[in-house]
Amino acid sequence: MHEMSIALAVIGQVEEAAERAGDVTAVRSVRLQVGELAGVVPDALSFCFELACAGTLLEGAELVTDEVPGRARCQPCANEWAVGMPPLLSCPRCDGAAIDLLSGRELQIVSVHWEDARTHAPTRETVPEER
């Protein structure tokens, strides 16, 4: 189950960002963009995230996933369409196979909400994308 390795990577990135920020007492939520074509099962990822957070700064944190639909554009005719599942990877207008995937492969942290010991209030941080 690769969702566990993804959950561990997300936790590691959030912990690094919290360490750089200093005085973070708890992480309350993590928001991820998950592309339809990323090969990630959001429910499995949430389950793994909850397990992997135990005993860390993220224990009890909510994982919020925003699904990004797959979209493609045909190079020859410039038609754009929703790729869907299973993915339609040839142009529905001209049947061309020279396409560009515009979206749907995302797997990135969008934001993190944590509590800061200095202000005792929730803080929203954006964690830079690391692939």
Automatic annotation (TrEMBL):
Gene3D superfamilies: 3.30.2320.80
Highest taxon of the lineage: Bacteria
Pfam family name, one: HypA
Binding site residues for Ni(2+): 2
Assigned keywords, A-Z: Metal-binding, Nickel, Zinc
Binding of Zn(2+), residues: 74, 77, 91, 94
HAMAP family: HypA_HybF
Family assignment from sequence similarity: Belongs to the HypA/HybF family.
Function, in words: Involved in the maturation of [NiFe] hydrogenases. Required for nickel insertion into the metal center of the hydrogenase.
Protein name as annotated: Hydrogenase maturation factor HypA
